[in-house]
Amino acid sequence: MSKTIKFSLCSVLIILCSSFLVLKNKTLIFDYPEYWPKPHYDFSKLSMSENEFQLGRQLFYDPILSKDQSISCASCHLQATGFTHVDHDLSHGIEGRIGRRNSMALMNLAWNTSFMWDGGVNHIELQALAPISSKNEMDSSLKEVVDKLNTSRKYKSLFYNSYQDSLVTGQKTLLALTQFIVMLNSYNSKYDKFIRNEDIDIFTQQEKNGLIIFKKNCASCHTEPLFTNNEFHNNGLKLDPYIKDYGRMQITNNPEDSLKFKVPTLRNIQFTPPYMHDGRFETLKAVITHYSSGISHSTTLSERLKNNLDLTHKEKVDLLVFLRTLTDTDFLFNNRFSYPYIN
Amino acid sequence: MIDIFKPETLDILLNTTTFSNGDELSFNLGVSSNMNRTGAHSGALDPSNGMFWSWQSGYINFKIEGISPSCLTRKNKFQFHIGGYQAPHNTLRRITFILNKQTTQLSINLDGFFEDTKLALENQIMVPGAKANELATKFLNTLTIIE
């Protein structure tokens, strides 16, 4: 009798072990609502494996990427605030250095056609190069990072698990980071549940009004469902005389691109202050006030902003209330994206 | 990737099985526009090789750096990082030579590049654009076949 029990216990253990192994090497599913457009990114270089995802997650949270091991991606891109920083207007780097721009929120990146406020980075796999190399951020180089990772037993083994080769290369480092950040998708906000009719009563009358105002006044740039059209626009912000940031023009050398910046997504906007490329507005109220009465007119100003946003006080409040429905707590508190305590 | 300070990168073995007089040797100096648009690559195109711009995606097709007393710059340095794949300033160059011998030396004589470059005025080109495009063409003057 006891033998039988032992035997069955044993087989239970074996079954448990094997299912654990299967779990460890499982294939990732890139999921998104079926009514969304197809992602811009083609995924062909990613393994879509759990191991590569976890390696990318380790790298994302590891200050080893910076010159003096003090700053990680997560230093400026914190999950609870939509993977951006709050409290500072401009990003902070090693040794207390201050950058020139507000860090961007990270989500739904597979739909982005370019990266950074000026669109200087043309591909998600190359995005991490910018903060790694920037003097005011990590002040390192991909070569330096690869050399450090190649002396780490932990990373040699993680790279082996992901690529069946423990040699760390620049390409693999960038791909692992991509495998992590491309999975940071947000599509379960109150707004999404309303659009999907998951709960008919989920939106209050005020939120419904706000959505109508939004569609009429904001959606031509902050286009649903991603809440960005991926374009660059001059949205009437006066040039900061200290930073002198001309945005897109610095990449294209075209004066017609002067003062144009990437249209950012508005998803999780409630938790991603401060706003704009230089973080000049601390509240959404200040943003709405800017579009109503603060537009600075210059030759490259977006056609769509030539007339002030003409809203009553009540309409402004409704719009603000609607913007808060874009908060997705499933995303902001998803354990799979958080700091990797294990390992 | 050829590095003038790494002799092992200067010998290129082409595994072609046949050779006859008059064959063409054709190669690209630089990285194709497609490879500039398609993310992180491996080997010679691995961005960790230091031939890739981080703030504005794109490969540096060639670098020439040095010191000249004509440069009134810090430590008299000049730096040319030439790249850019977008029209009208695509700096990729296709080079073709007709060959008469199986073993061929491709000579790079930098005089061709510096001859009419006024280093006092022009000593730092590190971004894509019209200037980079001009220097990419000028670099062609440095290449000859010695048989």
At CATH level 2, the architecture of the largest domain in chain A is Orthogonal Bundle
Radius of gyration of chain A over all CA atoms, rounded: 23 Å
| H/I helix tally of chain A | 13
Based on the structure, what is the oligomeric state of the protein chains? heterodimer
Portion in helices of chain B: 10-25%
Might you state the CATH topology name of the largest domain in chain A? Cytochrome Bc1 Complex, Chain D, domain 2
Structural write-up:
The complex is a heterodimer of chains A (343) and B (147). By secondary structure, chain A is mainly alpha-helical. Chain A folds into two domains: 50-186, Cytochrome c-like domain (Cytochrome Bc1 Complex, Chain D, domain 2, Orthogonal Bundle), CATH 1.10.760.10; 190-327, Orthogonal Bundle (Cytochrome Bc1 Complex, Chain D, domain 2). Chain A has helices spanning 2-24, 50-60, 73-76, 129-133, 142-150, 153-163, 170-181, 190-195, 205-217, 249-252, 284-294, 313-323, 329-332, and strands at 232-233, 261-262. In chain A, strands 1-2 form a two-stranded antiparallel ribbon. In chain A, helix 2 (50-60) runs antiparallel to helix 6, helix 2 (50-60) crosses helix 7 (170-181) and helix 9 (205-217) packs across helix 12 (313-323). The two termini of chain A are 40 Å apart. The model of chain A is unreliable at 1-23 (pLDDT under 50). With 147 residues, chain B is α+β, with helices and mostly antiparallel strands. Chain B has three helices and eight strands, in the order E-H-E-E-E-E-E-H-E-H-E. Chain B has helices at 33-37, 111-114, 130-139, and strands at 24-29, 52-53, 58-67, 77-83, 93-98, 105-108, 124-125, 143-146. A four-stranded mixed beta sheet of chain B has the order 2-3-4-7. Chain B has a two-stranded antiparallel sheet with strand order 1-5. Chain B has a two-stranded antiparallel sheet with strand order 6-8.
